[in-house]
Hints:
By secondary structure, this protein is α/β, with parallel strands linked by helices. The chain has three domains: 3-242, SGNH hydrolase (Rossmann fold, 3-Layer(aba) Sandwich), CATH 3.40.50.1110; 266-388, Jelly Rolls, CATH 2.60.120.260; 398-619, Rossmann fold, CATH 3.40.50. The protein has 23 helices and 21 strands. Strands 7, 8, 9, 10, 11, 12, 13, 14, 15 and 16 form a ten-stranded antiparallel beta sheet that branches. The protein has a six-stranded mixed beta sheet with strand order 1-6-5-4-2-3, with helices on both faces. α19 (512-525) links the parallel β19 (500-503) and β20 (530-534). α4 runs parallel beside α12 (222-242). 44% of the residues are buried.
Amino acid sequence: xxxxxxxxxxxxxxxxxxxxxxxxxxxxxxxxxxxxxxxxxxxxxxxxxxxxxxxxxxxxxxxxxxxxxxxxxxxxxxxxxxxxxxxxxxxxxxxxxxxxxxxxxxxxxxxxxxxxxxxxxxxxxxxxxxxxxxxxxxxxxxxxxxxxxxxxxxxxxxxxxxxxxxxxxxxxxxxxxxxxxxxxxxxxxxxxxxxxxxxxxxxxxxxxxxxxxxxxxxxxxxxxxxxxxxxxxxxxxxxxxxxxxxxxxxxxxxxxxxxxxxxxxxxxxxxxxxxxxxxxxxxxxxxxxxxxxxxxxxxxxxxxxxxxxxxxxxxxxxxxxxxxxxxxxxxxxxxxxxxxxxxxxxxxxxxxxxxxxxxxxxxxxxxxxxxxxxxxxxxxxxxxxxxxxxxxxxxxxxxxxxxxxxxxxxxxxxxxxxxxxxxxxxxxxxxxxxxxxxxxxxxxxxxxxxxxxxxxxxxxxxxxxxxxxxxxxxxxxxxxxxxxxxxxxxxxxxxxxxxxxxxxxxxxxxxxxxxxxxxxxxxxxxxxxxxxxxxxxxxxxxxxxxxxxxxxxxxxxxxxxxxxxxxxxxxxxxxxxxxxxxxxxxxxxxxxxxxxxxxxxxxxxxxxxxxxxxxxxxxxx
Length: 621
């Protein structure tokens, strides 16, 4: 049979099904993403891909042929000025684990997968061996999770070719996985790109053999990837033509679940959650041998247990397994203990998501007991829960909550220098004697962490006569090199009428003179403004203040801490070298840096309390 005849027959067969023969469906499109592409205001994290080895470009000689890179290329054709980039999250477990990894809180990883505005979800290869009933619930739950994370997110479902799908298409059938996925996509108005169908048509038509398309049946060769690239380009053009760019993003309203059993409460419960009760020789905050864990809970003695009470339909664990890993035993709701053996075939540290109990009554109370059951090492990351745990801080005021967080930490031991208040007499007078103190924080998202520490509540407890009005007109990744230009001090500082201006963060680009410029501009229009300069805290390990850290300021070289100190002295500002006691505390804590981190750069609730408590100590007389 000629290739044209084969293609004609294939088209007839597809036409006999209830599915459209086109290899993509635009549906509601991605108009919100089109708005963000045009506005170009969301930084580089525009597209986040979640999937498997196909997404990773496994087996390609030319990595730029992977379909994620081709999608960025196709979108850039329509929005050449957009600062567009891709983040690829390769994971085991298909859509089942995706449901948990895209949850609204990521205390374990410290990663925020849904940080962009366009989610491209690709689980076909890893879902090929999963029960289709599980796929229904996990994929729908995942889609709902992304929308619950941020209602303006756009989503695209992608299906790549597997041997099972090819056999279905050869038989004139729509693969069951795609049929179910398309049901879900239609229910939520999500665009879909069926790369599997596009490639199958080419293979059935004789334009390329399956072995030439893929050497292992899953990951495309360069020739196969070029077919995917063709399909991506056509799909993106159709997406862009389908909807005009809106004036503003529109929030998506979630309809009721398509499948009544779907549970969209997937989350990763961190092992340090107050509801996780520990017994035995557990060591929290230890360095993980692999990412994306920021830290792990380690035990090397049999008998150590973890207990978690929860509501929900499924419970599992997320840990790191290696050749030296211990076995577990676990029991749910008082049932006899069951064994979870350490894998014997691992060749190095590996992330292991595993379900322990499914189909639980989601409205009932449950309890999981997990026990280290053999010699070896247990490295726990957290619990996979489709449900909820009680909030240990429920009903607490902000001050009570931050006190509870700090009470679980080692106390900070820091002796601030004498004479530190010499250049902020009015500030200290208001703190001591009463009145309103207007305090403006200037800087980046690290200054956002500073604000998030709620340190002003600590100060008002120490100085009960004073009312502190904290104002934080911050801009992510922004320092004084930005604020000093185009009279930006007016909008970011002066219009708030500060008594005290606090400048800090990690985004000043090492330019202490830019800080000086901001100080001088502020005082030129409001001479009575007092200023406190803070040296950097948090950030990435590669940042100078961590990479070249010394407990005391190095005054023998030109470095930012020293230069800030000189600017403070010359401009008559207060100065707090927070870098020194901050990093010294972390070094002495016995915990890895990630124990205090919310992501690769920013503080978590513990890290924020280091900042807040240091400021409390510095201001206390």
